[in-house]
Write a structure and sequence with these properties.
By secondary structure, the protein is mainly alpha-helical.
């Protein structure tokens, strides 16, 4: 069961990160994308008050499972873990953290861009109709 949870959390967490980055693209997922952004920001900043800036409950739960499976020397960052596993490298923690924060900012900025683009299109339609 622990092995299944490990695989599940790896897949779910990876999908969640990708959704934070690119969930703004399909119009149908933009509201869910905003929720994902809000949850991420809340965890990183508000839970971060108690657990450290950038805290992620998914990583915390996942690492508990990995430790029970005998895995040691886990990094604080899921992003670093996935990058290191995928490349066989030992990436610099600070660089990975910078790219991770930049990814969140990218998701936020693009969500804002799409929001204001949609509003602009709606105003142009109203001008044409009215």
């Amino acid at each position: 069961m622990l092995q299944f949870l490990d695989y599940f959390l790896t897949g779910f967490h990876t999908a969640f990160v990708l959704f934070v980055l690119f969930g703004w693209i399909p119009e149908a997922t933009r509201k869910a994308h905003l929720i994902a952004l809000a949850l991420t920001i809340a965890a990183w900043l508000f839970l971060g008050i108690w657990y450290g800036l950038g805290y992620c409950p998914l990583t915390d739960w996942h690492w508990d499972i990995k430790k029970e499976l005998g895995e040691k020397h886990l990094p604080n960052s899921f992003t670093k873990y996935i990058f290191d596993q995928a490349t066989g490298l030992n990436a610099n923690k600070r660089i990975v953290d910078i790219f991770t924060a930049a990814g969140l900012m990218f998701g936020i900025v693009m969500a804002g861009v799409k929001f204001f683009q949609k509003r602009k299109v709606e105003r142009l339609k109203q001008k044409r109709e009215g």
